[in-house]
Amino acid sequence: MFTESMTAVAEDVFVFPVSFAQQRLWFLDQLQPGDPTYNIFAAARLKGRLDITALRSSLNEVVRRHESLRTTFAEVEGQTVQIVTSDVSVDLPVISLAHLDANDRDAEFERMSELESQTPFDLSQLPLLRTRLLRMSEEEHVFFLTMHHIISDGWSIGVLVRELATFYEAEVNCCSPDLLELPIQYADYASWQRETLQGEALESQLSYWKQQLAGVTAGLELPADRPRPPVRTFASASQSIELSDELSESLRALSRRHGVTLFMTLVTVFKILFHRFTQQEDIVVGSPIAGRNRSETKGLIGCFLNTLVLRTNLGGNPTFRELLERVNQTTTGAYAHEDLPFEKLLEELQPERDLSRTPLFQVFFNMLNLPDGEIELPDLSVELLPPRDVGAKFDATIYVRELNRRIAIELVYNADLYADERMRHTLAQFECVLSQVVENSDRRIGEYSLVTAESQRILPDPTEILSSKWEGAVHAIFSRQARSAPERAAIVGESETWTYGDLESRANKLANYMRAQGAATEDIVAIYGHRSPALVWALIGTLKAGAAFLILDPAYPPARLVDYLEVAKPKGWIQLEAAGPLPQSLQDYVWSMPCRFRLELPARDLGQPFASISSNDPGVDVRADDLAYISFTSGSTGRPKGVQGCHGSLTHFLPWLQRTFGLDHHDRYSMLSGLSHDPLHRDVFTPLQLGASICIPNREAIEVPGRLAEWMQRQRVTITHLTPAMGQLLTETFPGDAAREVDSLRYAFLVGDVLTKRDVARLRTLAPAVTVINYYGSTETQRAVSYHVARNDEERADENGKQILPLGKGIEDVQLLVLNASNDLAGIGETAEIYLRSPHIARGYLDEPVLTSERFIVNPF
Q: What values do phi and psi take at 89, rounded to 5?
């Protein structure tokens, strides 16, 4: 079966071609010289009377028996070759730790284990096998064995251990070892592989794999805790669990019932996890196969291990039973075409090169079938110690071992990508799904819960009754402040200041005028104007009239504003003169609207048009669910959707805000938010309910770097609401200008985009006393609904390398539920959607009943 292809270069040195696996390992070593990732490290604890001379002699007998242990590698005329030397002996250094106390001895053992496993090999130098013997006491030793993967694999460890034990027993008993001569050597196998894997045999294998892997995507995007480095790293860590006897046996029984192996059952459950974590349907994992399907190879030490690529489509939300059959078919097909080396497959497919990840797959599933951990020898017991990680070859590797009745799972992962806590929880979720699968294998894969007992304790209770206390309308609370302190500054502009008494009187006049013109509860009034005291006045006046406001930003394209008006169909129009004349197309549309009133108000002397109108509060009663405003969002469709905001949402979180942050009437708020966005409500209504002041900058202060910070310092602003983009503008200066400082700023609330720790650092440089809060909300939720207070040490990336601040937790009377496609609570790490639960959300989209029913749903719990 095997043919010999070798060249003698000296009397005791022979050159052979390398196998495909050796070719790739040589390439990887040339790419990253001195990398210990492909070291294979094993250790055994020896208890009893050890004959060190016999062990050393036995070790060299194994080296004599296997050419692979006497092999090095080189490039000859552009070809990688293996060079076999006839006579090689290896040393067995003995290092005594017996003189150390127990703690120091354990520490030195760990240090030396790390050193041995991480010391690289030079593939051109003999030997590619290294041994050490640690004397722990007179009758206890630890044997270290390290080999490079290019001459060995996991199966080979078992071969070496068994033969070493056979030679040792024969040596101490002065007899011949009970071992047959090897029929071939590894170099014979490598030559045979090269010569036979061509022509029709090669094409048959390639045809299957090309069809099986057609269109494989770039990679499995498992959620990571740290950014993926541009070049793949190998730092490793591990977590492990043992399944209970009962669960282990149930899984074996389930596999038997469905006519599959335990391996297939376990890999199917892991694929469900990967699908739920990523929402990808095309899941590809790698899996090793011994590569010793010919009897001559079973007793050899060498690199026979091959890798199979197992691709499964999880589309259509199949049942577990159906998915298991898909995995069965894929795996059976892969076994039938296992002769094609993975290295040859890569050579033929030539997947797009990405230095940050392994080609074709990033997760490896390895069900180990290694020798028993206990070996009995004369006067000596041998315990194989658990293998030691020498580097993460993949993003994640799952090792499965059957230990007596139990199934042991170890997850080795790239520590530069994943935090220990995440991977520990991944194993808990794996066990959780396994338990559900054995109970019912006919459920659809999207129905199995990833919520473990531990995560259940930290998730909100979606059946909890949330308070819906009505704090009163925002304009009514403002009026109480005006009656209490009419002389206090309500609005501070660049050239004028309005007191609470001024604003109350003028807003009452506007409201009474609107009521006289027929404005009714829930009528929509469009307000066209820039930031100004007049804009605040128009908002409060509209609410006092019982109507709802729609702010139109003059900076927006006229066509977009016309779209808004077509949806809103306002009954009133207020145009603030400071905004300038209307563009013609917008003006034509406005004058065609069937409005009850149209007002064009001057920038100053706003009381003049209402000289004869009463300044008494009209006393219009509104309820929490009455319409207060319309805000527009395009969302993902590009078509404007009018969100109907209610009065209750404008005031419900004020008590929480006061208790949490200690805000009061002494604060001074900046009015910086976009005019058409709901964060503007926090700029306007929060200070007016607290009796505080609103500070309004001119346009130049917002647009020119450095001017905004200068204005905030001059106005002694203490509270600001910003987007991250506005925060960057605030901290910018012209080149050469001195850095500004705003020492008055107490709180910066940011919302509207991802907030990074770099943003926090810049704000704290600008305002040393500031506390930064990351708000989260959407137009449909009306106000910020969750918060995270940036810690003092949160200016730098955390231990996981994260730069982005979390969204935090829900505010009072708000739950943020992360639900999966089945509307069940998502497990940690599962890709899902945020659902907001609160009595204080918007009441839907204006004239969009179908979309409203899709997005504003009944609590599924």
A: -125, 145
